[in-house]
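[step 3/7] inverse_fold.run input=structure_tokens len=101
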């Protein structure tokens, strides 16, 4: 979870992150906001670029710190990682050739 002073990002409740190929680049490109205050269902965050306080309903978003976002994406994509790594390995070794349709 997050605490006051943490930097968090907001994502759709239905986002599965299956489109993410490079986890670190995705995290670097994500906007993060500083948590100023935690109320019951609302948190107050501060935009680093705009410098103003923004109220956010915690029931409308997936809220992640950098670490929790990294862990969440890796846990969602772990079943594809082994396949992708094997394809990269075979491609580098050129042990197979792509056949035309």
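[step 3/7] decode complete -> sequence:
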């Amino acid at each position: 979870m997050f605490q006051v002073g943490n930097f968090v990002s907001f994502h759709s409740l239905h986002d599965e992150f299956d489109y993410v190929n490079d986890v670190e680049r995705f995290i670097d490109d994500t906007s993060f906001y500083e948590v100023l205050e935690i109320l019951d269902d609302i948190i107050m965050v501060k935009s680093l670029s705009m410098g103003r306080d923004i109220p956010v309903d915690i029931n409308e978003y997936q809220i992640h710190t950098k670490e929790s976002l990294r862990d969440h994406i890796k846990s969602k994509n772990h079943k594809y990682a082994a396949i992708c790594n094997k394809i990269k390995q075979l491609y580098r070794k050129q042990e197979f050739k792509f056949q035309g349709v």
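[step 4/7] annotate
The chain has one domain: 7-93.
The mean pLDDT is 83.
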